[in-house]
Each structure stands twice: as C-alpha cells, then as structure tokens.
Amino acid sequence: MATYLPLFMLFGVAALIAGGMFVATTWAGPKVPNDAKAEPFECGNPSDGARNIRPSVKFYLTALLFVVFDIEAVMIYPWAVQFRELGYTGFFTMASFLALLAIVLIYAWRKGALEWEK
Amino acid sequence: MFKQLTNQTKRFWSAALLALLATFLLAAGAFAAGVPGAEKAAAVAAPAGKLHVSPEKGAGRLELRSVGEGVYKGNFVITNQGTGPLKVVRVVARTSAQDPRLPKGVSVRWAGKAVSLAPQQSQTVQVTWSSAATRAQQLFGHVLVESDALAADGTPGRAAAIGIHAEKFSGPLAWLWSHILSIMVFLPLLGVVGMFVAHLMGYRDDKKLRLGVLGLMGANLALAAGLYLKFDSSFIKVHGNDGYQFMERAVWVRSLNIEYFIGIDGISVSMVLLTALISFVGVLCSWSINKQMKGYFAMYCLLVTGMMGTFVALDLLLFFVFWEVMLLPMYFLIGIWGGPRRQYAAIKFFIYTLSGSVFMLLCFIFFYLNGDPTYLVDGQAAAHSLAIPELSRMAWATKGLTILGISAVKLVWVWLFIGFAIKIPMFPFHTWLPDAHVEAPTAISVILAGVLLKMGTYGIMRINMTILPEATQWAAPAMAVFGTIGILYGAFCAMAQKDLKKLVAYSSVSHMGFTLLALGSLTPMGIEACIVQMFNHGLITSMLFTLVGVVYDRVHTRDLDKFGGLASEMPLYTSFMGFAFMASLGLPGLSGFWGEAMTFIGAFPRYRVLTIIAATGVIVTAAYHLWALQRMFLGKFREEWRKSDYLKDFGGKFPEINKRELASVAPLAVLVLVLGFYPRPLLNLIDAGAAELHRMIDKPGPTQIAQLDERPALPELAQNKSADQTKARAKQETAR
Amino acid sequence: MSDSVFFAIAPLLVVSLGGLLLMMTEVFATRRADADGPSSDLAMGTFITMLAGAITAFALWLVGPDNLAGAKAVAPYLLVDRFTLFFDMVLCLGGGIAALLAGGYLPEHKLDRGEFYPLLIFSTAGAMVLASAGDLLSLFIGLETMSLGVYAMVGFRRGSMRSTEAAIKYFLLGSFAAALLMYGGALLYGVTGKTALAGIGAAIRAGVSSTDWGILLLSMVLILAGLAFKVSAVPFHMWTPDAYEGAPTPATSFMAVAVKSAAFAMMLRVLISVFGDPLSTSWGTGWPPVVALLAVLTMTVANLVAGRQSSVKRMLAYSSVAHAGYVLVGVVALVEEPGTAQGSIMFYLLSYTVSTAGAFGALILCGSRGKEAVSYEDLAGLGKRHPAVALIFSFFLLSLAGMPPTAGFFGKLYIVSSSIGAGLHTLAVLLVLNSVLAAYYYLRVMEYMYMREPAAGAPIAVPMRSGYVRAALAICAVAVLVLGLWPTSSLSMAIDAALALR
After folding, report:
1. pTM of the full predicted structure?
2. How many Å apart are CA C401 and CA B327, to the nearest integer?
C-alpha cells in the first residue's frame, strides 16, 4: 500500500485545491447580478435563434470516413518504416488491410455516402 | 461484370459460399487424414491389456437365440484390444438370491480358471439360458468379465459387462407380448397424430373421429385384457428380472445413463388395467364435447400416454418425463373445456403439481449423483444410474449422506413424499382438487379421480418405499396420521357441500386418505389394502363423476338443494346413482367395502387409536352419501323444473339416462358388483406384489435409521452386520 | 506463419469473408422498382454464411483442434479449442436464425434496408472472436465489434422513438460495462504485467503481494460487474427490457441468444483462466459468493417481474434475464465440478438458443405491419384463429419452461444436476422453485392464446406470412425436439468442450 501512498496524497491535494477554489469563490466573491451576466455567455455575440440546430448528417459521414482513412495513414507509416524487416508477411497483411478499407470505401460510395447533393 | 450478377445475386452468392465451404471441408478432410494422432499417443503408453467385450455378431447387447426346448444360446467375444497381455480372471453370470437380476438357468461356458490373452487375441464365450428352470418369460441381465486390465486412471479396472437378453414369448403374437407395454403407452399417440392430420386436411366428420378415438382406447383395453391373462401373478423377485414382467429396456440418453426402462409387477399391473379401462370410459363421457373437438381428443390421447407411461416407467427420469407429459394436457383440458373458472382451476392444478414435481426431480438427481456404480442394460459401465431396481439395491441409509446438515435420506423421502402427496391429494395440499374437479369437464373429472390421483400413491410405493425403505419406516406413522386426517377432513367437507361434484371431489380426498393410512401401516395387508382401495376408488369415483355429468348435461346445475324427488323422474338414473353411492360409502358386497375393510384390518395392529378414529370417518361418509341421496332423489319433486328452459325440449321432464351414458357406467358397475362379491381376481393380481414390497420395507437390520442414529460412528460395523444378516436371509430363502 | 493458420480460424474467416462478399453483392445489385427489397437476397445469403461458419466449426471439431498446427500461431489472441468451436456453432446458429427472422420481419415492417445483414454478420464474427479470445486485447476487440453492430441493430427502426431510446440506453450502458471491463483488465495488467489470460492466471497462481491482492479483488469485481452487464444479470439488467422491447424483434432474438452466449463464453474463459486459482475460487475470498448472489437475485427478481408484465416481448426479455440466472448457478458450480458444470452451461446455452430464438420468431409470426403482437391481449384467441402459430409458440414456451420432452428440460436438468453435484443444494432448490414461478408466466401466454377470447372491438394482431420465419421456426422446432428426445450427442459434445480448470 505504501507504494501508492504518494499517489493518493496527490489525488487528495488536487481535489482539495479544485474544490477549495469553488467553495472560496462562491463564498468570498462579491455578487452583482444583472441581465448581461445572466446570459449563457458573458462575452462575444449575443446568442439568438433556436438552440437545437442540427448540423446535416453529411458532416458526420464525412468525418467518420475521414477517421477511417486517418487511421489507415497511422497504420501505414510504421509499416513503411519497417517494410524490409516485415517482409512478405507484412506486405500481405497490409495488402489485406488496404483491401478491407477499399471494400469499405466502395460500400460507402455505392451506398451514396460520398454524394454531397442528392 | 457486376451487372450480370444483378439478376442472379442469390444464385451467385450461394455458389460462391458453397465453393468456399467445400474448399475448407476438403482441406480439413485432407488435413485430418494426414494427422498422426492416435498411433503416436498409443506408442507412448506402456504396454497394457485392454478388455473389450462384444457380441459375436453386431454390437451392443447380446441377443440369445432359441435353439429349441426352451434353451437359448448366444456367443460373445472377449478381445484384448491393448498392447500388452491381458489376464481374464473369470466370467460370471450374476444370478443369486441376493441379486435377483437374472432369472435362473443362465450359465456361461468358461474354463473356470484364468486365461491369458495376447494383444489382439480374442476368445469366444457361450451363454446359455435354460428357461425351463424359471417362470420368467424374459431375460435381462449381464455377464461380467473380470480381468487384470487397468482403468484409464491406472486403478484396477472394474469388470466389463455385456448385456444379455432373450424373450421366451413365442407364437404369432410373440412380438406383441414382448412390446405390449410400449404399445399400450404409445398407441394413444396415434390419436394425437390422427387429430393433427385431420386438422391439417380439414376433415370435419367429428363422429368418425370420435369413433376412431374410441377404437384406439378400445384396442388399448383389449391389450390390457390380454395383459391381464398373460400376467404371471406369482412371479416375484426370486424368479429374476427384479420381479418385473413385460420389461423393455434400452439405453435412451447415454451421457446421463438414462434408460428407456419399462415393466410391470404386482403393484403396477392393476393401475395399468385401471388406466386402460378408465380412459375407454372417458371417451364415452366426452361424447358431447363439440368445442374444438380435435384439440380435445388430441390432448386426451396425450394424457393417456402420460398416465400409462407413468405407471410402467422403471427409470426415474422416464417416470418424470411421463409425469410431466401428463401434466400439460390436463392443464389444457381443464383450461379450455372447463367451467366458468377454468383458467384459475387449470393454473392452480398446474402450479401445485409442478411445485411438487420439481422437488421430485431434485430427489431423482440426488439418487443419480449418490448412487453406486452399475451397468447399463447393454453392459456399459455407468457411474450412476436412474433405474429403480438398481437404486433399490443400494444401501442408502448406511451412506450417511446429509443435505444442509439434515439426514439426506429423510429429507429426500419427505421431498418425494410431498411431490406425491400433492397429487394424492393429502390433507394440507388438497385445495387444488375441488377446484379442478368442479371446473373440469366430466370425462376429465373421471380421469382425474380415476387415475391421476392414484399416481401419487403409486409413486410413494414405487419410489419412496422401494428405494428408501428405512426412511419409510421412519415416516410411516406420519403417513398414517395424515391419512386419517384426510379421511375425516374429506368426509366432513363433503358433508358441507351443496355442489354434487364438489361433494364427490371431497369424498375422493377422504377415500384417498384410506390409501395413506393403509400404506402407513406397512403390513402386507395394509399395502394390499392400499392397492385395492386405489383400484376400487378408481372404478367407483369414475362412475360417480360420470353420473354427475349426466345430470349436469341435462340442466347445467349440480346444486343439491335445487333438486329433489328425482327418483320419480329418472328411476334408472336414480338406481345407478344409489348403487354408486352405496359402493362409495363402502357397503359390503360392493367393491368399495374391501379397500376400507382391509385398511382397517391392516392398520389396526399398528395404529389402534388412529384406526378407530378413521373408522368413525366411515360413519360420516355414510351420512353425507345418504343425505345427498335424500336431498336429490327423495322427497318432493320441484315443480319449477317443469318450466325450465333446459327441459323445454323434453316436455318439462327430466330425460332418463341414455344408452351411451349407460354404456359408460355399466361396465364399471358390473366390475364393482363382481369385485364386491368376489374380489379374488383382483387380490390374486396384487398379492405377490404387495408381499414383495412389504418384504423390502420390513427387512429388519442395522440399516434402519433408528438404529443408525444410535451408532453413527461405526458404519463398518453396520455394514458387516448387514452382510451377516443378508447371509442369514439367503439361507432362509434357500431353505424355503 | 503457415497456411494452416487459415484452417485454424476458418469459421471466423468464413463468416467475415461471407459478410464482405454480402456487402459487395448488396451494393452492386440493382433491382427493378417493383422487386422485393434487399432482404429477399441477403437473408438467405446471411443464413448460408452462418451455416457455412457452423459447418466449418464442426469440421474443425472432427479434425480436432489439437491437430491444427495453425492454432498455435494465433494463440493466445485467438484460442482454437473445442470450447471455441462449440460456441462458434452456437453463435452461428443464433445468428443464422436471426437472419432468417429478419428476412421475414424487415420487409413486413418496412424496415427493409440491406445494412442489417452485414451488421448481423460482423456482430456474430465479433462474438466468435470474443468466445475464442485468450488475451485482454482480442477480448476487447471482439466485445466491441460485437456490441457496435448490435447497438446499430437495436436502433434500426429509426423513425421510432422507442427504438432510438433503446439504442441510446443500450449504447450508454454497454459502453459503461465495456469501460468497467477495460478498467478491470488494466488493473490486471498493472498487477501482473501480462495481457494474455493464461499468463495473468499463472502470475496470480504464482502468488501476489497483499497489496496487489486488494487490487486484484477490485479488478475481479469490476470485471464481474462488466460481465454481469453483458449477460444482463440483476442488478445490472436495467437496460435489458427496454433494449429488448425497442429493438426490431430479430435483433432482440440475436441479443438474447448470441450476445448472451458470447458473454457467457467470455465469462467462463475469464473466470477459469484468470481467476481459476484456489484463492479466487474459494467461497471466503473469491468470486463464488458474488456470482451465487448474482444468480439468486437474477433468477428471483427476473421471474417475479416477468410475471407482472403486460407485454409479451418484455416478458420474454425478463425471461431471458431469468435464464441468465440459471446459467449463473452453473457458473457457481464450476468451482467444484468444472467439467460437468461447463458441459451443463454449454448445453443449456444451446437449448436456450433454439428455444428463445424460436419464441421470438413465433412472436414475429403472430403480428404483421401496424398490428404487431405485443401484449397478452393481442394474443387472445390466437389458438382458434391461427392454431399453427399458437401451437409452435406454445412449444417453444414449454421448452423455456423446461417441460419434457423438450430441449429446455434437459438443459435445466443438467444445470440442476451439476449444481447438486457441486453441493449447491440451496441454489438448486431456488432454481427449481424459480422454474415453477417461470412456468406461471409462460402458461399465461398459453392461457391467452387458448382460453381467452379477444375483447370485443379490440384491434386484432394478424399473423404475417413469411417463408423465412417459418423456416427459422422449423429449424428451431426440430432442434428443440431432437435435443429433448436424443440429447446424448450434443451433451457429450458440450462435455468435451469444457475447459480444464487448472
């Protein structure tokens, strides 16, 4: 248990500081409420319009596809660096990985996920 | 290219996958063929002999063939399948007075000394059964082969066994006789199939279907008659086959050692006959069912299968399966075709019985897990068994098992007993019965009272008493007390009823109390009385419910107070009702008398006070019967019936009992009368079985719980002593 | 790395490749406007894929996993043993039946979009990975692959608030459970420095310091809680009725059957390989009392609540929770009787799979678009209106209730038998009492179908017609009957499949 003691102490101190600040400001700070302060955001443009504007689902789709290919890049870099050491095993593994991604892309394309205007 | 796919997507798809699959399978097969698996493992192991026993031809059980003059022969082969030499020590057929599995006359031709077999060498052994030496018509048993082979874990292996089997039945009906019980159990299933097919084909001729079911039950009744003629009533344990006749035995679920094991003895034969009879009468009683008639008869036939199976099953799990199979159709029969509160009555019946039966199942599992090793019918060694005769050979009381700190034997006995007591129904568990009876259609009441209630008592005899005799000794007084309470409670409740059917239902509670009192006495007379009472109560109550159904059909009421003076309206019906009431109250000369009288004779030596108390119940019984008779049939006829809507078609008169109804009552009445004056045919059937059961329970010795409790620390002593006693008993037996 | 790797993981490969092929087929198939929806092709294709997966698993079973050289190459990430192969077969069966049900259900309820089938296939593949995972990493990958597909399937009825709510609930709680599992796994790694289950187990068996033991206990609790979420054991079952009710019924069937089986496979594997040491399996210091408590709570609460439901689908959801409780009794018995208990659990899951899938299938068949059979009243009088549907529904319910001669009877018998063999008399008694309770609400369905008339003027559920659903029901019915009459071979397979408790 002794090994973890400093850790727990750290947790304790962190909680104490964070909590203490909240308590201190609410307790000690002067409060002068007015309309401007009651706004959700005190600075920047005054907010107006409906709160629940939904961005089009197209953005999500594109974002998701981006993540897929982003991850692809992350995987390919280290493989490329180690290309010679990994040999054919590595080559075929990466080839099948890319084939899978290709299938996914084809699926997305045929399903119309890439069409911006329908 | 993809365009081509378009129209044939499905076909392309399937072909591609199947090709893929085929490739894998082929590759896997090729792979498997080239795998050096088993040989390698064997080469590593030290050379040792491995015993293998099989029939000369085929596999499994050895079937002995007749060679004329009642002699049956068959050969089996002992093979050394191991890598080292194998010494076969001896080959024996297990036949002795202590172990009455094999009938007499079985012999094995064996040199009498040890024989050594080299690897792959084999030797043929001849088994002979000279059937003239015994009464047995069948041979079920084992031949044991003892050798020095080691078991898989290196310990000396148990002897290997091979099952032997022969049937003495001959003539054109040989096949029928050796499978008669199976046929009787599964013949009604034809009705289920028939109704199903009729439904699918849209067959609408209800009358023919009804006749078909009647024919089916009639065929069963005919088979039962044949069984009665062929049944050897003096066949008991010492004659072999554990005292069972018309056995059939085969392995059903090998991994749980469950067998399809059926057979009858003196205890169950009367119940099988009763079931066949009552199920026939039941069809006649259900003639007026028009609502979903095919479904009704399908359920009815399934019910008969369940009941019949319960009475013949000798494997605990098979027993349980039939027991449950009976439960479900009953639920539907009451719930769909019953009276106004049918759903309530049906579910109450179901839940009550199920709660009992799940505890039964726990007990069966307990027996299974704690039993001694034995052999399945084909000779396969089994660490556990569910066969009732095997379990009854084991000394449960000396095992010292406990469950949650309580003596397991006692606890298991009580659990089992509760399961059966709910069915009987015994006093505190009886509340489902009046509900079920009142709501059930006539035929189902008949079946319920005539057969189903007997399953409880039968179960106690077949399982509680046979497997746990010591615990039965311990609990017998409680049985007798509950029986007596049942007799009085049922009688008084019946007295208070206005509904005629409820009255009969409570009279059932009262009459089934007699069976418990009789069983509790543990005397041979008591046990016999129990079976006699079961049989006769089955006949009489069926008659009563049929007759109640007759009047209910006419005017849709059973309220005693609404009737009166019916004797002048329906003289024939009245006489039948009077006859049934007299039989039910135990008038000498009618069969109901014997059960009660024998109960008192059997129970009196052991429970004097209880018997006297129970005897007062007879007075109450007479009182409510006569009072009911008086209220319904005597006195002045109520004129308001003349204007009743129900009687409009008959000109305001109660129509007399008709021919069909007469046909369903008359055979029962005749039997009641005949057995009343001359009960010998029934007693003959039961005598030996009852005596045998009594011998099982009443064996004196240190295995009794009462004595075990005094010396819990010395189980060895107990075992030795019991061995001595069995020896002594063996001597007695041979002397006899 | 040799070719035989492909043999070793053949069932998984067959199913996944089949899924890919199916996806491509779907997007390239152009159909005329008046043709049937994508289900007409994909349902059968999915079923064939699953069947191929099951058959391949069976072929490997016949070959014997010990004879597969490639099995060593994929270990410990994927363990190819009889345990895995048995679960592969069960999962493929569950997935295949769900596909057939979907083939009838989706077009009927105008949900016919092709995505359902790839989701189903990849979920099944994930479940298969889960059942064979021998490493925390592959376990988590399998778990997430399985779950993601199911989340999407639950929310498949996009227009319905109920379905969306169910999906969100299931997603949140499922992720929470996965997080708990992950956290437990991380702690295990922290204590032992290993991720392979067997390695962790060996390290624990070798002995850990008392501080680490505390952390181990914490991780055990976290993992058990995560597993309990996945098998929906009380008190971690709150999501079950909502998710089961909101999901399209084929997805419900898949969740009740395949997801639960895979979760139990994972539970067995983790408890045996990781927490199989004497300390962890003792009643004083280990998981048995926790699991026993879960089992008792699950059985009792689920059965009591199930009896009070007015929706049949919700009742079936609670009944599936109750069945998880029965299986948990078998899990407790694992300590004393590892072989029999595992055999009983696996046989139970097999019989439960066919019975439950059948029951949901029958429920699908009872309703049609806009008139889905949901409540008991919807089923009133069904026995007269549509005897065949009512009959088969009753049959599956009886199997769930454990009446002979159905698969459910032997399943329950075997669980009770193994628990009594392990000396768990109290649990066994509670189990059978619970099965009486359960019989009550299963019978209630039959009571409505056969013994009641629909209320006058009430909307009547009209049974749909679908060859797919009928085929699925036929498969289930045959399986239930065969397992109920001749359980020997499948029982002995289940026993062979048991993992050794070292």
Report:
1. 0.88
2. 13
